[in-house]
Structure prediction request, 383 residues.
Amino acid sequence: MREVVIIDGIRSAVGKRNGSLRNTRPDDLAGAVIKSLVEKTGLNPTLVDDVILGCVSQIGEQTGDIARVAALISGLPITVPGTTIDRQCGSSQQAVHFAAQAISSGDMDIVIAGGVESMSRIPIGSSYQGVKPSEQLTKQYEIIHQGLSAERIAEKYQFTRAQLDEYAYHSQEKALLAQAENRFKNEIMPLELVDDSGATFNFDQDEGPRKGTSIEKLGGLKPSFKENGIIHAGNASQISDGAGALLIMSGEKARELGLKPRFKIITRVVIGSDPTLMLTGPIAATEKALHKSGLTLADMDVFEVNEAFASVPLAWLKETGANANKLNPNGGAIALGHPLGASGARLLLTMMSELDRTEGRYGLQTMCEGMGMANATIIEKIF
Prediction:
């Protein structure tokens, strides 16, 4: 099996719902990211074997194989194909996995992988259009809203609202500090946008982090999914817009082209988990990834666990016993936002930036996914 490396990656800043990216089509946004990635790496675009993008709500401006559409918009040659995948919230992480698998097997040499989601222009759930789950499914499993799954996880692990709110508060504080120290600068592509008045502005900073967040303010928010529940807008991931992409190739091809890779992808796994609790998959995915790699939790320098709801990373911490100081050191989706199809790419890029900043060696990324699944990826920094 061939060595798989990440040359580099780039993403848009994450826009809040109906924020700066509200007037930007998702296919145009993904195209801009792909174009910027090619320019950043200096790659000859004719060498790209495929473009694989994740996208959850594949309807409207996100339909028609948005990966192929975005590749064409970006200016890639018409000979470069594209395919769009849906692994729910882990879609762009799975896109990276599929790219790595194609390269490792020898089927491809160079792939652009990532994802996109505009939740302002294509609201979450749009692709369902009132369709209910199959009776053949609901006969076997209790299918509930993810917010209720998050509530049940909190009940299972006996988390209090105070614990969830404290976690959410620290996510905001970490993200604000990361912004103040320009930790995201090298991963974000500045975009020149036009506001409603016709004036242009530069969009280059994630809009999600909320200055002035406090435990007291979080404590005053009403539960979102259950009467007397403890999950609310402040301790759940934000609805967001964004796109990201990474240039992935074989180590052999990188050496041939004279490109210096930043990281190796050394382990990738995906698992299925309880479709009712739904969000506990990262626990088993982490265990499987560590077993497959022969590494331990102690070997990891950074963990990126998607903050779908505060109860998810807290349950992961409790089950794994991982060092909490290594978890989402720059904040997570509670603060930075969660553009569904793009979040896997965002987490990976942020983890790469943090490993560079701290000179760490290994990073583990994992993401809970709809209907009970989870991906996990381990990368190694190339010094």
